[in-house]
Amino acid sequence: MRVRAVAATPSAPVVSCLLSALAVALVGGCAVGPDFKPPGAPPVKSYLPPGSTGPAEAGGQEPQRWIEGMDIPGQWWTLFHSPALDELISQAFRANPSIEAAQAALREADESYAAQRGALLPTVQAGYSVERQRNAVGTLAPTLSSGETVFTLHTAQVNVSYLLDVFGGARRQAESLHAVADSQRYELAATYLTLASNVVAATIQLASIEAQLAATNDIVSSEREALDILKRQYELGSIPMTDVMAQEATLATTQATLPALARQLDQTEHALALLAGRFASEQAPVRFELPVAGSAPASSAAPVTAATDAQTLSLPRDLPLSVPALLVRRRPDVLAAEAQLHAATAAVGVAIANMLPQITLTATEGGASTELAQLLASGNTFWSGGASLTQTLFSGGTLLHRERAARAALDQAGAQYRLVVLTAFANVADALTALRHDADAVEAGARAAHAAAESLTTIRHNVELGSTGYLALLNAQQTYQQAVLNLAQAQASRFADTAALFQALGGGWWNSREPALRVVPRG
User: Fold this and answer.
1) Which domain holds residue 238?
2) Could you report the per-residue pLDDT of 374-423, keeping only the tens digit for each?
């Protein structure tokens, strides 16, 4: 038997009716439920409370100034002028699993939205079946016009169905999923921003620990020199042995702080390896240091540094300060919360549409024959067309409570959005005030360290001459030790709060060169 391909299409009357109904649904249909309107900018003019001094300039030995309206570069961390830091962040962007997870979540959301958009179009299905049958002609009327008892029946048909979106339920669902996809886009931007900020924070912490280690090692050298002086004076009989023993105890106490700092240093290096998406054994140690502020430690020995090849981080001098109205269009977490609010708004429309009648159009055309080649022969074709309307009359209150739940979820999303906005403004205010206080702390710390260094040098010289007692030396050593550690911590806080300001203002992701962020809508 010769076989040829057979195609079955709906007849002209069926197609005409279906297209007419489709046009009516698309043109005249409405979408029930509230329409989303993006929230307006908060009615505030400043990040800081009334009467605050305001972020005019952070002084100190390295003054910083705020520039209103200054845009944030996409790679804001390059303002610290450290190629090693830039490379660490590039490694993190390439290998950190959180980036891969956020990208996968975005692809999932995009595909879910695309799948829902398909519900707005008719569904077309083609089917073919073949059956071998034997008819009980002694009991039933002949199945075939020929009266044959045993035969093979070929059936092919095309089914077209379309759910008329009269009340916009499917469109609202697509709108909700589109908003969810937007939220995931902003979550991806937030992931990049958070990862870069964490790498910068860990780097600054590493440099701070390096500075504290260097200062502590230098203090140990100074205390050893003092111990040698006291031993010589004891040998001359000018001081009792208790003074020597007390200095030995002081030296041992200072040395005991070194292991804890070394442990913090190792743990911070491990954290950097984790952020870079590597195992700790795969990440080569990188050394960073903060710029020297204040006086060098008072010791005749050369200062002990953590690493001779450490990279010095530079403090950015010009800092951006976007207007409050622009912050809500730049912070990725605020934009993500707004997209979630949009999704919740559309979900209310979905719940309302589910309570209304559902209208479905169907059309079928095909052919049946005992020979495949005769499927479309005259008398072997069939077609049908129709419409159905379904209205839920009773569901135990399920649909009503689902609508109420959707409205409650909308209220929740609105409250969460307002909380995210308030948090964003608080973050900026915290960073601004912290930077002003950090500048004062660094300046005061530098003066204190310089004064303590000079005092220790003088008192140690007097002890060596025998004109000053040991107690004065002990107090001077403790004062100097606390001063240099305070200075190192104040410098680290200033660098960390500078990075926090860039993060609080949105991190400049809209200017990023990362390919994954180019598709993110620019707020």
Assistant:
1) 30-44+70-123+166-357+394-517
2) 888 888 899 999 999 999 999 899 999 999 999 999 999 999 999 999 99
